[in-house]
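Today's session is about reading a structure prediction critically. Students often jump straight to the picture, but the first step is always the sequence itself: look for stretches that repeat, for charged clusters, for runs of hydrophobic residues. Only then move on to the predicted structure, which in these notes is written as discrete structure tokens rather than atom positions. Here is the chain we will use throughout the hour.
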Amino acid sequence: QMHLVESGGGLAQAGGSLRLSCAASGRSFSSYKMAWFRRAPGKERRFVAAISWNGGWTNYEASVKGRFAISKDNANNTVYLQMNSLKPEDTAVYYCAADPSRTTSPLEPYAFWGQGTQVTVSS
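Below is the predicted structure for this chain, in token form.
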């Protein structure tokens, strides 16, 4: 079992930055693949970024590539999403997800999910 708690969301201006954190509690965090998804108002949840259990690979959705960076701190059971050059279309609830799979696919399914943190980007 794994419990995930996101933080770091808030209001930012276009062109600004935010860093999201996802603190995990539970055993074997270091062996989990981690990801960020987001749900914009009126839209389905979509993949944003993923990182393998050991940080050996990362994967990004095309619209955030070069602006967002995912990282994993196994010593502190935390995964981060650094978001730079924010755009109004990045406005969404951001969710952290974890899965024990060793597959290289960044997409769902993920076994565990956080409650989400709101990110709002003003123009």
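Discussion point for the tutorial: The CA atoms of residues 38 and 44 lie 8 Å apart.
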